[in-house]
Amino acid sequence: MANRVDHEYDYLFKIVLIGDSGVGKSNILSRFTRNEFCLESKSTIGVEFATRTLQVEGKTVKAQIWDTAGQERYRAITSAYYRGAVGAFLVYDITKRQTFDNVLRWLRELRDHADSNIVIMMAGNKSDLKHLRAVSEEDGHTLAEKEALSFLETSALEATNVEKAFQTILAEIYNIISKKALAAQEAAASNTLPGQGTSINIADSGNTNKRSCCST
Ligand SMILES: Nc1nc2c(ncn2[C@@H]2O[C@H](COP(=O)(O)OP(=O)(O)OP(=O)(O)O)[C@@H](O)[C@H]2O)c(=O)[nH]1
Ligand SMILES: [Mg+2]
């Protein structure tokens, strides 16, 4: 258990928001962290992040969520953005087919820059705009299955599934981290040779008082 005098959370998870410009990344972030929505939000310039602390599988988890522009020319330095991220929230707009077709590009970018074990949640946002739908929910499910991603349709405007999407990705991250911690403990226990230390990667194992999975 973390020492709650020193730290108010058991785990810190960095999650990055990605996806084309205008799909609603910044509004998903403001809905999740401040319960706010802005109909006329401007394109993000550079990088912003916001945090929210919540309970996940009985643990106190601080989610640190990073947001940048979908548009290339406004983007922050890619490697710094992805560094230390344990989760990615990949957003498309259900009313714009192109943003869905570009999901494969974003997955490639993740493959190139992020940790190979990063947990990915794909979100088809703006589910409130049913009359303008250009991507069926089934297409979303099919792609998610093919690429082994979690998937939900969300609406930042109506606050539909935003909470659930973050809970799902955070629980998935927590389950992976705690399994790794257990495996590291078992490896340490079976290492009985005298004088032979076991080195545990903090980022992987979560086996310290403060399990930080974010490199800020
Ligand atoms: N109807 C509807 N509109 C939304 C929703 N989410 C975002 N929007 C609108 O879509 C527009 C773009 O939203 P942003 O959150 O700024 O998009 P972004 O992905 O952060 O864009 P960049 O910062 O340029 O990459 C804004 O006008 C929002 O009000 C939603 O769930 N439903
Ligand atoms: Mg934005």
From TrEMBL:
Domain of life, per lineage: Eukaryota
Keyword Lipoprotein: yes
Record region (Disordered): 195-216
InterPro entries tied to this protein: P-loop_NTPase, Rab_GTPases_membrane_traffic, Small_GTP-bd, Small_GTPase
Topology within the bilayer: Lipid-anchor
Family stated for the protein in its record: Belongs to the small GTPase superfamily. Rab family.
Protein name: Ras-related protein Rab11C
Principal location listed in the UniProt entry: membrane
Gene3D superfamilies in the record: P-loop containing nucleotide triphosphate hydrolases
Any single GO CC term annotated in Swiss-Prot or TrEMBL for this entry: endomembrane system
Sample GO molecular function, one term: GTPase activity
Keyword vocabulary terms for this entry: GTP-binding, Lipoprotein, Membrane, Nucleotide-binding, Prenylation
Record's subcellular location: Endomembrane system
